[in-house]
UniProtKB/TrEMBL annotation:
Organism: Amycolatopsis heterodermiae
Cofactor requirement: Mg(2+)
Record keywords: Hydrolase
InterPro entries noted in UniProt: Nudix_hydrolase, NUDIX_hydrolase-like_dom_sf, NUDIX_hydrolase_CS, NUDIX_hydrolase_dom
Cited SUPFAM superfamilies: Nudix
Source superkingdom: Bacteria
Protein name as annotated: NUDIX domain-containing protein
Keyword Hydrolase among record annotations: yes
Similarity comment: family membership: Belongs to the Nudix hydrolase family.
Stretches assigned to the Nudix hydrolase domain: 7-128
Length: 137
């Protein structure tokens, strides 16, 4: 008889800002959170490091090249354990792709409005506030 299977799915996300202090967000194409705005990111593939996964996911979902830095925080959403990394954008062109229907830079007013109208993935605003990671603009 086999032991219990770990059903936790390791995921990564990227927290990136533009030169004006606006936060990079994507509109999710698929569940969980389809149609809502979120940080870009996704699953860590087998044999992949978090760093490699962040670079890949950011490129796939936003068209941007990044260098991941430190972990800003970790959240658990259902069976998904998401490790969000500070990222520095080094190139690329902002374009929604892969698991995103839209991608944009959002300032503090945008983010607050998205939270108030339910357009943000559940608890994202509170989490970013607790991590001191809200847009600076």
């Amino acid at each position: 008889m086999e032991g219990s299977i770990d059903t936790t799915v390791r995921c990564v996300g990227g927290i990136a800002y533009d030169d004006q202090g606006r936060l990079l967000l994507i509109r999710r194409a698929n569940d969980p959170g389809s149609g809502q705005w979120s940080l870009p990111g996704g699953r860590v593939e087998p044999g992949e490091s978090d760093e490699t996964a962040v670079i890949r996911e950011m490129r796939e979902e936003t068209g941007l090249d990044v260098i991941p830095g430190t972990v800003i925080g970790t959240v658990t959403r259902g069976r998904y354990e998401i490790h969000d990394y500070a990222c520095r954008v080094t190139g690329g062109v902002l374009t929604a792709g892969d698991d995103a229907t839209d991608a944009r830079w959002s300032d503090a007013a945008d983010l607050s409005d998205m939270d108030a109208t339910g357009r943000l993935v559940d608890l994202l605003y509170v989490t970013l506030r607790d991590w001191n990671a809200l847009p600076r603009a």
